[in-house]
Amino acid sequence: MIELVDSVDTGADRAAHLIARVLRAAPDATVGFATGATPLGLYRRLADDRRQGRVDWSCASAVALDEYVGLGPQHPDSFAAYLAQHVLDPLGIAADRADLLRGDATDLDAECARYEAALARTSVDVQIVGIGRNGHLAFNEPGSPFDGLTRVVELAPETRAANLPSLRSLEKTPARALTQGIGSILRARHLVLLAFGAAKSGALAAALDSPIDTACPASAVQLHPSLTVVADRAAAARLRTRVR
Ligand code: PGA
User: Which of 72, 129, 173, 238 could form a disulfide with 205 if both were Cys (CB 3.0 to 4.6 A apart)?
Assistant: First the structure.
């Protein structure tokens, strides 16, 4: 289902409503949190809802989608730091209920295997995802297998440029990451895909309107039985179908 919204704020409200519904049905739900610019409005809204006592996160757990290789949770550019700042602290999710990928693990393959096993054990109730301009899903770049599991990947140059943390040079931006695979992501019970802005319109059309193809990793979401896409008009501008 595609929910077309007039503004990023309305999109954040819609997505927060969906997440709240999952939490109310299952207070001990496991929620998968994306990073990046797109979900920040959603995370502000979730924090507001918690402050106002509308949603109780005290029994919920959190998982991440991906992490840069080499960056530990203390590193300000790590996704662990992002999630602590925007999600875990504001929602009061304690460290022992947040299982994040360790980009500073000495054995990265073992860390990926650990994470995949943890995801399979936990079973993610709702996974929030964004979409890259090149159609990537988490850090599954074009060409990634749809049955792929958590693993170490090389980042596409355009992804490194898009995610360039402020004040850092491209040379210092990690070239590799750990990421949930598309197969891992598709196992979540519900998927909420957020896309805002004209820069995402081509990728969103390729993901939703074209035949599924590994050239557009996000097209794998068409395989998911419980998908909600929340998109603004700019991101949805090139969609032909299923917009309401
Ligand atoms: P963004 O990233 O939210 O910063 O645009 C989305 C993505 O690359 O998946």
Answer: 238
